[in-house]
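agent> Task received from the user: take the single chain below, predict its 3D structure, and emit structure tokens. No templates, no multimer pairing.
agent> Plan: (1) validate residues, (2) run structure prediction, (3) serialize to tokens, (4) report one or two observations.
agent> Step 1 OK, no nonstandard residues flagged.
tool_call: predict_structure(input=
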Amino acid sequence: MRRGLDRTTIKAIYDRVAGRYDLQHGLLTGWADQRGRRFLVGRAVTAGDRVLDAGAGTGATALTAARKVGPEGQVVLFDLSRAMLAVARKKAMRLGLTDRMEFCAGDILNLPFADEAFDVVLSTYSLCPVFDPARGARELYRLVKRGGLLGVAHSGEPAHPAVRRMADRLERLVWKFPLISLGCRAVSVLPQLVEDGAELLCHHSIGMPLWPFEVFVVRKPSLASGRRAGMAP
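)
tool_result: status=success, residues=233
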């Protein structure tokens, strides 16, 4: 896994690209990014949920979630870049959804929320640039209520070795231009979550062969199921 970027660099990149992020990320991923967002919201979010979108960016995932939670639910948008959140807020105002949305700025590796504060936590492509994605995933999982869901989409590696080598060469080239790469690189966090006790509900690979996305939903076991697992021979 390529070395991630530090917090200051990530913030500077996304502050600069906020106005064009949606178009740029969509074009570079062949719009597969939107498929991942819709998939996670469709599988994880229900009416009335309290949802955290960690690394919410310009709100593409959060706005879809806000429509689904309805007037009784809430979606908290959390991102390192205030410029990205400003774009998200403008979208929410245009759509009349600000009454069920909250906007917070900070570091995804140190989320300022109590343990098990959310029914659903979502992370769409926000773990890819961070320095320690496994730590970030654990921090997200900490915030999920017992019985709640964590949905994650992130860049992955191609399955075929030859394609993987081609992808690595392309990534090395694009990595030289951070305003294009956005600091994104292939990461792996699902094994860490499963090791921590998460129950895998679904796992798919989507997108282009050279730049696939891993998309999955896990559940944090309830206390009752945890006790049953502990009693199993």
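agent> Step 4: summary for the user.
The CA atoms of residues 200 and 218 lie 4 Å apart.
agent> Done.
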